[in-house]
Amino acid sequence: MSETKVVLMYIDGLTNPDFVSTVKERISEINFDLFFDSSQVAAFLEEHQNSIFPQFQQTDRPDVVAYSLGLGKITLLVDNTPFALVAPITFFHLFQSPEDYINRWVVASFLRIIRYICFILSVTLIPFYVALTTHHYQMIPIQTLLILVDSRSKLPFTPFWEAFIMLIFIEIIKEASLRMPTKTGQTLGVIGGIVIGQAAVEAGFASNVLIVIVGISTIASFLIPNYLMTKANSLIQLMFLIFSSFLGLIGIALGSIAILAHLNSLSSIKQPYFSPVSPFFRKDWNDLFIRGPLVKMLERPEHLKPLKLKRYKTRR
Amino acid sequence: MRLHKKRCKRLILLFMTFSLSGCAPFTENNLIEEISPITFLSISKGDKGELKVSTIMPPLSKENKVVMSQEVSLLKEGVQKYNLNFYQEMKSGQMRMLVISDELGKDGIMSIINVLLTDPDISSRIYLVIVKGNFEKYMESQLDKDENFDYSFYRMLKHYEVQNQGELTVVNLHEFKNLLYTPYSDPFLPVFKLEEDGVNYEGTALFKDEKLVKTISSIDDRIFQLINNDHYLAVLPIQEFEVVLGHVRSKIKVDIDSSYSTMTYTVNIDTRIEEYRGEKQLFDPKELENMKKDIETHLEKQTHELLKKMQELKVDPLQLGIQTKRPFSKPMEEKKWSEMYEKMDIKIKYDINIDPLTDANSKRQNL
Amino acid sequence: METHQLFKKNETYNGFYAMLLVNRLQMLYFFLIMPNILINPYMIWVLIAVGILSHLNLLLLSKWLLTRLSSNGYNGFVQLFGKKLVRFLSFIGLFFILLKLSVITLGYSEIIQTFMLPATDTNFLVFFILLFCFYVAGKGVEHTIRFVLISFFCTFWIITFFIFFFFPPIAHLSDLYPLIPMEWKVENWKAFFLILSSYSGPEFLVFLGPWLKTNNKTFRYLSYGNALTVVEYVFLFIASLLYFGSDFLSKSQYPIVNMARYFQNPVIERTDMIMLSFELFNLVFAVSLFLLLFYGASKIAFGKMSKPSSGKGLLFSAFLIFIGMVLVNELFWKSWEKQTFLLNLQIIAGSIGYFLVPLVVVLVMRKRGG
């Protein structure tokens, strides 16, 4: 149907031919009239349509594409869109940024770990606040409790509704600042963030502790390099929020079990989405939570099953 | 299948939103603005053998605070009675201190300790404190001056506990319980005395099992801190020799002979002189040696007296009995040990290393 | 879209997974209450001795896993025992699984109720746990086995906190004395069987044969997993001895949780709540695996092997288990005396199951093999 040209790129003799055949087959099955973005093509190639996690990495950076090809992935170029699609990716690829390979490895590892921590923070910090203030007051240190009781004593809403309203509000600001011209967008961010937040505290709608927490978790959510993931973040957060107001910490634990089980069962062009953690590839951990020194990464990631594992020339 | 699962999920979500719009029907309501987590309880003897339980309400807030007391026969009953008297529900999950009056201590506090141990909300890190005097009255007088005096009190105990500051005895529930339940050892608690100007640390209360039998104070208490509790003292003034020892660290070695009749208790001390008003030339090795000898004999005498006292009372807060445990033999019975302990000949030996920091008082004969 | 197959087999997992499976299945509920029953310091040796015994058991297990029969799954068993006997045995197996499931789930929910959500009815907790287990199990056996990695990474670090108890002022060497038993009481037998039962769990690997890639290293990996468990048990037991002293140990119902409550952290107090929540990962993993086994076994028992597995069937068995658990909870678990009965039952059932399953399988195999 569609006349849009799609170019499939891979390095012959390196990339696993299974990937190529899978994608070729899927592309040939596409039956749709109009594509104006590569993510729409991706939508037809993905196995798990209902998942909020992207199974194709979208990038407009040639270096990322080149690097991915070199590791043994495949790349799709779609006509008339600036974004290339890279697959197969794993959950952990969402947290890797090209700068990781430019910085010194210790610095890069530190930044990468910060990114993971921020993801966890952005998803669980507000639910954690709700869990502590509604169920587990025992866990709050007494100094903090003094502040919390003081700031919460005159609020009309329960912590859940308070957090829920603030979260929706933040989403509105985020979305609004996207729709506006760049300069107005910035002003809106400032007005929304500071002025309304302050006013909400003074008017007695929200506690200042929550404002701080919402601020931290919102900023933390922007640290994830993948754009699609940043958007998906708030949904996970909302789910955790509901669970936590329901069962406290157990709710959060159950929620994370669900998310992890979901990730565990996902796949990107038939490759497990949660590798190299599950299934386990010990050697690939060098470039997972930390970015190991390049001299230690002489082999391509095993979980990509490349035809040539070694990245160096053997003498014989 | 997919459709089925989706519907299932939706139903669950719907169910959750419904129950959230009210309050969740099956969890305890612990909204922090609706409860008052008490930080301490003070227990003393009421009339007719009842317990008098008092605390400050509301805790942790800047509102007007009042002292509330109830006379009850059971501790938890007191907590329940507060709820009827106050607009916030009382919760014990943030309890930090338990103040016990010394009269109650003399009667035995086993039942109170058991209440604390069984409540899963109460952390085993709460501090136990014995006070002499009427704590309720004291609280009322303090509320006008310092609204957060309970918090300050807690911070003080915490400060001395954390790094073993070596000033006061600080005992938490877990330590007390362990000393109480293990054979051959007896617990001890800090004693505070209430006076016009505030709470003053008096010393350490020694318990025979669950009953308070003796309070040791001043130099005895200092020695107790040194040899048992902290193994560290920030300052140890010895008036007899006009000297103040600072940063005293001790190491204990206990030897017991095979017939369990004599025990050698060696205390190794590392310290430095922080203040000296005497005439001795501290930088002269000979005079320093003399000084050391003097201090050693003095401390030996004091410690011996202290241990004698403990032996007479048959209390063993130093856990000396543990020395009789051997890896490959049956532990002796507690009764047998306590008989032996009474008669045991305990030899004290001090071994002091002094670093003379100052020589300022000497008359500069060398020049 | 591919059809939903719970028991499909695309991948096989190597020894590393077997190791984690063994370890995580052994660290379920009993280790939380174990010190309360062991009490005496010399039980350390019993822990180690039974650990070695369980080692031998794993040797038998690996023998079975190495055969071609094991990788055939159901058909392998049919070849071994004959169709009727397999159906009968899997029918009995259902009760074993149900008992084990009830004990670990109800025990865990009771701990949650005691320490975290005192007003919550345990039936609700069981409902939620099973709901999420159904979700995990619904992903199929493959993904559930893979979930062991996540469960391992989420729970293993907890134990490192207990190193704290090995340092003064808490640790006294004398708390570990006497190191050898002076007398052997009747209660010690209960402790012995408890240890045996806590080591049980790997016998369920017998049924996971199709998904495990086996080679001559399999036994080594299985024994690594077992050794890890022994280390964890001994470590926790010594820590609890140092913390409580053996005289108080019998008075504390949940010693390990009580110990965790003693940790101090300036940012969050009561870290035990966080640890307990993380422990849920392990529980959900194990329960979902057992759920799948239960479903598989019930299919065999009622002769529905030819029918494809479906989510509906799994949901139905999850529902059955839920009903069963609620009944067990109301009839036995909630009253303390009857709970001990159930615990004893599981202790015996676990020990017997762990000993007989690999032994019988290997013996029958030998006989058939000539």
Automatic annotation (TrEMBL), chain A:
Residue stretches spanning the membrane: 113-135, 155-173, 207-228, 240-263
Annotated membrane topology: Multi-pass membrane protein
Record's subcellular location: Membrane
One protein family per Pfam: GerA
Keyword Transmembrane attached: yes
Family named by the database record: Belongs to the GerABKA family.
Name the record gives this protein: GerA spore germination protein
Protein's organism: Domibacillus enclensis
TrEMBL record, chain B:
Any one of the GO CC terms: membrane
Predominant localisation class: membrane
Gene Ontology BP annotations: spore germination
PROSITE patterns (UniProt xref): PROKAR_LIPOPROTEIN (PS51257)
Mode of membrane association: Lipid-anchor
Pfam families: Spore_GerAC (PF05504), Spore_GerAC_N (PF25198)
Spore germination GerAC-like C-terminal domain sequence ranges: 202-354
Keyword tags: Germination, Lipoprotein, Membrane, Palmitate, Signal
Signal sequence region: 1-24
Location(s), subcellular: Membrane
Domain Spore germination protein N-terminal: 31-193
Family recorded in the similarity comment: Belongs to the GerABKC lipoprotein family.
Protein's name in the database: Spore germination protein
Organism in which the protein naturally occurs: Domibacillus enclensis
TrEMBL record, chain C:
InterPro entries, per database record: Spore_GerAB (IPR004761)
Transmembrane parts of this sequence: 12-32, 44-66, 86-109, 115-135, 147-171, 191-212, 224-244, 280-302, 314-333, 345-365
Similarity section: Belongs to the amino acid-polyamine-organocation (APC) superfamily. Spore germination protein (SGP) (TC 2.A.3.9) family.
One Gene Ontology cellular component: membrane
Location in or out of the cell: Membrane
Protein name: Spore germination protein
Coiled-coil spans in chain: none
Keyword annotations: Germination, Membrane, Transmembrane, Transmembrane helix, Transport
Major site of localization recorded for this protein: membrane
KW Cytoplasm (keyword) present: no
Membrane topology type: Multi-pass membrane protein
GO biological process: spore germination
